Amino acid sequence: MRWLEVLGGATILAVVGWRVGPQPFADAVRAAGPAPLLAALAITAVTTVACACRWRALAHGLGVEVPLREAVAAYYRSQFLNATLPGGVVGDVHRAVRHGALPVVADRGAGQAVQVAAAGAVLLVGPAPWASVLLAAVVVAALVRWPAVVATSLVAAAGHVVVFLVAARAAGTAAPLSELLPLALLVMVAAAIPLNVAGWGPREGIAAWAFAAAGLGAAQGATVAVLYGVLALVATLPGAVLLTGRLARGAARG
Fold first, then answer.
1. Is 112's pLDDT higher than 60?
2. Which of 77, 164, 187, 230 has the most neighbouring CB atoms within 10 Å?
3. How many CA atoms lie within 13 A of 251 on its CB side?
4. d(CA 223, CA 221)
């Protein structure tokens, strides 16, 4: 089943490449300058700490204690493995082996649920004043019941969206934020679809379709999505350093 998911992601990516050609991929690499890379590193540091805090809160509720420092390090390692190995879940398996499966499953589920709910609310609510009030009431109620989980999940989801907006501007997209924000939310939801190759596939496919539907061009959407993938990958490199250090310490003890 895992290989079928990887094959699905590879197929989607191949179709995108066939439809828009290689130029968007080359443009994305060229647009990955120092400023967007540093911005992605800084934003991802915030989202990683938020995710680690959410995981700790859920683990604590399940009777598993994970120190904050270890949680942040483990989350960085997890993100790096997810971003570099097929399937996009190897890092979570690594966390589960070391700290238990149930807290990790709860963490993944809670994060995706809040992200999908927040994105759906923003996409469906629109400018209607009554809907905005209703959305605010739902958010407040959720924060009162599950404050740590909801708050940290919202911070993490917002961080991913901001990195996408950074990628859009770096790729030369001049559309106003009011147009880009719904596109970013839609692409972030698509990125959670488990038919991917280390996160690649559905994200690029939905971005190309959504940008084309918005009149911004499928090629531009593919460029932004690919650039986002590059920024997200670079932002996980602290996890590579931490993983290498752990392996070196393990080899020294062995």
1. yes
2. 187
3. 6
4. 5
8-state DSSP, 200? B
DSSP letters along 140-185, please? HHHHHHSHHHHHHHHHHHHHHHHHHHHHHHHTT----HHHHHHHHH
CA separation for the pair 235, 123 (Å, rounded): 27
| Angle ∠(73,51,169) on CA atoms, nearest 5 | 100
Give me the pLDDT at residue 240, please: 92
pTM value is: 0.87
Q: Can you state the angle between helices 68-84 and 90-99, rounded to 10 degrees?
A: 150
For the chain, the average pLDDT equals 86
Is residue 195 within 8 A of residue 215, CB to CB? The reply is no
231 pLDDT higher than 70: yes
